């Protein structure tokens, strides 16, 4: 089993914790990780881009000049693509970019991402992160104590004050154990999780 140190909010090591190898110690499948990231980004695309083709642009019904004898190239419409105000060749139309991954692939991709973070020593376990009230300054102080700048913070359910405290930090994102995803795990330099959150992850994904 992989063993990681456990820190308190002051950044001091207060113990260690064994991680479940079935989640945090699997062989990294780079293809599935890449596929999961592309899947999430594709599913987030609106796909609403649109431009008009020559058939959709208004006007241009009359032939601009006769076929022969003018010295100009022959033209059939002022809405052809080569004209200013004409239609767009192969114009983009609204489409759906999303595609599906099955549950086993998604789960394997997440395990690979978490294992990669642990292998790179970018996974920090903190004993608890409780706030009496929402205070961004206090949350920032914890990150400074851990010497972390950009992080994904995984919290146990119901830790509302910690979520609110991190809301105004642009380089920090909070997630619950059931909302973590491959894209966020790979995007942020460090993953910070409370002991309770790690236990929940091992319970859900084992």
From TrEMBL:
Chain spans, region Disordered: 45-87
Annotated keywords: Ribonucleoprotein, Ribosomal protein, RNA-binding, rRNA-binding
Source organism superkingdom: Bacteria
Function according to Swiss-Prot or TrEMBL: Forms part of the polypeptide exit tunnel.
Compositionally biased tracts (Basic residues): 60-71
Subunit description: Part of the 50S ribosomal subunit.
Record has Ribonucleoprotein as a keyword: yes
Name of the protein in question: Large ribosomal subunit protein uL4
Pfam family, one: Ribosomal_L4
Organism encoding this protein: Ohessyouella blattaphilus
Hydrolase found in the keyword field: no
GO terms under cellular component: ribosome
Similarity comment: Belongs to the universal ribosomal protein uL4 family.
């Amino acid at each position: 089993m992989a063993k990681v140190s456990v820190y308190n909010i002051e950044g001091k090591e207060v113990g260690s914790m064994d991680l479940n190898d079935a989640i945090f110690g699997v062989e990294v499948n780079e293809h599935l990780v890449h596929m999961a990231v592309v899947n999430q980004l594709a599913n987030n695309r609106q796909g609403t881009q649109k431009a008009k083709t020559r058939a959709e642009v208004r006007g241009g019904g009359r032939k601009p000049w006769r076929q022969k004898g003018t010295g100009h190239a022959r033209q059939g419409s002022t809405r052809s693509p080569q004209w200013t105000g004409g239609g767009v060749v192969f114009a983009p139309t609204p489409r759906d970019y999303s595609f599906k991954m099955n549950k086993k692939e998604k789960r394997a991709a997440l395990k690979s991402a978490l294992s990669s973070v642990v292998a790179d020593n970018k996974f920090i376990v903190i004993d608890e992160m409780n706030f009496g009230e929402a205070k961004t300054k206090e949350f920032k102080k914890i990150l400074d104590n851990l010497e972390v700048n950009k992080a994904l913070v995984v919290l146990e359910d119901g830790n509302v004050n910690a979520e609110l405290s991190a809301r105004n930090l642009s380089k920090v994102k909070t997630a619950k154990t059931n909302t973590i995803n491959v894209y966020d795990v790979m995007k942020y330099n460090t993953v910070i999780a409370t002991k309770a959150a790690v236990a929940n992850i091992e319970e859900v994904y084992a």
